Amino acid sequence: MTSAAPHEATPTTDQAACTVEDLSVGLTGRNIDVVDDIDLLLGPGEVVGLVGESGSGKTTVGTALLGYARVGALIEHGRVLLGERDVLSLDWKDVRQLRGQEIAYVPQDPASALNPSIRIGPQLVELLELRDIGTAEERDDRARAGLAEVGLPNDDEFLRRYPHQLSGGQVQRVALAMAFLPRPKVLVLDEPTTGLDVTTQGMVLETMNQLCRSHQVAALYVTHDLAVIANIADRVAVMYAGRIIELGPRDQIFAAPAHPYTRALLDAIPHLKQARALSGIPGRTPGPGRRPSGCRFHDRCSYAIDRCADEEPPPVEVGPDHTARCIRLDEIGSWDIDLGTVPDSDPDKTREPILSVRDLDVYYGRKQVVHGVTFDLGRSECVALVGESGSGKTTISRCVGGLHRDWTGTIDFEERELAKGARSRTNDDRKRIQYIFQNPYLSLNPRMTIEQIIKRPMKLFGIAKGKAATDRAVELLEQVALGPTVLKLQTNRLSGGERQRVAIARALAAEPDILVCDEITSALDVSVQGSIVQLLEELRKSRGIGMLFVTHNLALVRSIAARVQILNAGRLVESGSVVEVMDSPREDYTRELLANSPSID
Amino acid sequence: MSTTTATTSGLRRMLHQRRLVAGMIITAFVVVLAIIGPWIAPYGEHEIVGKPFTHSGSFLGTDYLGQDVLSRVLAGGRSILVISVLATALGMVGGILIGLIAAYVGGWFDEVLMRLNDVALAFPQILLALLVLSAVEQPEWWMIVLLVGASHAPRVARLVRGVALGLVSRDFVASAEALGESRIRIVLAEVLPNMNAPLLAEAGLRLTYSIGLVAALGFLGFSTDPGGADWGQMINENRLALLVVPWGVLAPVIVIGIFTIGTNLMADGITQLAEKGGES
Questions:
Q1: Are B157 and B118 in contact (CB under 8 A)?
Q2: pTM of the prediction?
Q3: Tens-digit pLDDT profile for residues A518-531
Q4: Burial, A314: exposed, middle or buried (Cβ in 10 Å; 0-12, 13-18, 19+)?
Q5: Which of A405, A426, A434, A447 is the best mutation test for B, with the most CBs of B within 10 A?
Q6: For residue A536, how many other CB atoms are within 10 A of its CB?
Q7: Strand A382-386 relative to strand A563-568: parallel, antiparallel, unpaired?
C-alpha cells in the first residue's frame, strides 16, 4: 500500500487551497442542524481524510464544499474560501462554472455518475467542451492523457465503449480521470472505493494519491473506513454527530488519539497482523434533531461526567496541529492500542469436525461457479470463507444453509449426508444449521414484530410455547444486548445494527450447532461491527457453536476466525489456520490480497 | 426508541394524510346516504307524485313515470353499492391468489398462468358480463357480483404478481424457507402482509371500476329489478328528457361521480402514505 508523504505542518490560511470556516448546514424550515461549526483547511497536494459513521454528516460537509446541499437541507452560514472567493456567496452561475473546473467531485457510486448512453470519450471531453477549453483535437488529447494517468487504455476502442462495458474499478478510474481533467484545485471524494474489491480499491487509491501529489490538488476524502484513511491521508478529521470532534496529522490520530470517540472507533477495527479482540460502542449515532446537548458523544462515552452534558466542548490543542473537542482530555489518560488478542487462534488446537464439505461443485443453470471445494468446520470453531466478489464464497454458504440446491458433491453434518435443499432436510438438520443474512434490512419481515420473528423458530422446532417462549425471547434479546423493550416493535424502528442483532437472536432461538454468517457485518458501521463480532465470539465460546463466516475483509478474519479458506473464482486457493495463512502465505494470490487490504497497522 | 406501538403511529400518520381523510369522508358520506336513503326519502320508491318529467314532487322533479327523482336516488344506492363491494372483494381475492401463487411458484407455472391471464386481459372488461347476462332471462344479483368480480381478477393478478415478485426474492422469504416454514404460510403470512398498501390502493380503484361497471350494466338494462330504483338504470330511463328536466339523469350521475372521487382519493392517499412511510 502507498504510504503518504511525511507531513510537515498544517497549512496556514494563505497557503490553503480551500478554507472552510464556521460551516453549518441545517434542515430546511426546522431549527435542526445536520453539521455545525465546521472549520477545515485543505492544503495543496494534501489529502485530508474526513471519517465518520453513517449519520455523522460527512457527505454533507463534502458536498457543501461545492456549494451544494441535498434537497431538504440548507447551508445556513459559514464560508468556503477558494483563494479570495467564497463559494457559498457566489452567484449560482459562477458556482456552476466553479464546480468541476476548480472543485471536482468523485461520487460514491460512479456507475450512476456516468451517463449510461454516452460513450467514454465524449463523456470525458464534454466538460472541456462546455467550458470552451481548447480545440476539439486538444480536448481529445487531454482526454487520452487523462485516461493514461489513471492507468486505463486510451485507444479509440476504449473511448468508444459505453460505461456498462467497463468493470467497477475501471468506471471509478474514469470518474477520477474526469475529475482531474480540468485540473481542479480541490477534489472531494465521497467514498469512491466503497463496493470495490480490495485489489481494485488498492489500485484506485494509489492512482488518486499519485495524481493529487503530482498536480498539487487538495483532496477531501470522505469515508467511513478508517483503514483506508490510514493508508492515504495526511491529516484526518473525525466527525461525530455533525461536528469534527478530532482533527490532526494521521500518525497522531492513529497512534495517540485524544478523543474518547476516536479511541472507541479504533478499538472496533480489526488489524491484519494481530488477532485483536474488538469492542463496539454502545448505543447508536444520534441523527439530526436527536443529538444530545453538551458534548454530543457524552451519552455513549465511558469517560463522561455530568459536566459533559452541559458544556459544549471547544476544540482543544492536544499537540502540534492536533485538536480534539473534549473537556476531559487531561484526565482520561493515554491510549493503548493493545486490547488483548483473541486467545483461540492457536493453530495446534485439537479439532472435532462436525461439518465437512467434499468436492463441492455448484452451478447456476449451466454455469459452474464453484469448482471442487473441500473444507471442514469443527465444533465451537470459526472458519472464514474469504474472497473477492464473484469468488463463490456466498454461494458455498448458501449450499450449506440449504438455500441453493443446484450442486454436486457431499456436505456431511456429523457424518450424515445433508440433503440439498432446506425443504428436503430433516427438521432437526434445519434447526441445527442456522443462516444469518448479509443485509438485515432485507432478512427480517417488516410486517412482523420482533417477538413474532424470534418466536417463529421456537414454534417450528417445538422448543418453547406460550409464556416459556416469551421468556426465552426476552432472554435471547438480552443476550444480543437489545432488551425486552423492542419485543412489540416492528423492524423499521430499529437501526441496522439492532436489526442484525434481532437476526442473530432469531438464529439462536433455534439452538443451532452451526451458524452460517454471510457477510453479516458488511452493511454495518465499524463500531457496530465491533460489538457484533464481540457477541459472536462470546456465543461461540459459551454455546460451542461452530461458525462459517463469509467475508471479504481479511483483517476481520484475523479477529474472529481460527481457520481460513481463501477463494478465487470458485476455487480454493489456500486454506489453513489463520495464523499460518496470514503470516506466511504460500500462494501469490493470498499475498496479493493481503498486500492490497487496507489496514491501520 | 419510543414505546408507542406501530399501530398507533400508523393511525396518526394516516390522519395526517389529507387526501386519504378527504377521500374517506366523501366515501363514507355516499355510503351512509345509500344506507339510510330509503328512510329519509320524502316519497316511496315507486310512488307516483305527479306527471312525468315535471317539477312536481321534491326539488329534483319527477322521472319518466312521474316518480320522485330525489326519493329514487336515495333508494337506488343500496343495491349498486352492495353489488360493487362484493364484486370488488371477489375480484381482489381471486386476483391476489392467482398473482401470489404465480410469483411464488415461478418458472413455467408462472409463465403459463400469466399468459392465460394476458388472454383474459385482451377482452374489454364489460364483455364477459354482457355475454352471460344477455343469455339469461332475468339477471340475479349474484350473477352480476360473480361476473364483475371475475372480470377484475386477471387485472388484479397482474399487479399482485408484480409486487410479489419483488418480495419473494427478499431474504426474509429465503430465511423462512431455510426454517422449513410451510409454503402456504410463507405466501399468506410472510409475503401478503407486506403488500397491504398497494392492495388497498388497488381495491379502491377496483371499487370505482365496479361501480362504473354495475351502473353501465344497469344503464344497458341488466339490473336485478327492472322497475326498481337503480342509479345506472335511472340514467337510461330518464335520458329522453335530459334537456327538459335534467335532474333525472344528473342526480345519479353526480352521486356516482362523488363516490368515484372519494374512493379514488382514498386509493391515492394510501399510495402516498406508503411512499412516505418508507418502511424497509
A1: no
A2: 0.80
A3: 988 887 888 888 88
A4: exposed
A5: A447
A6: 21
A7: parallel
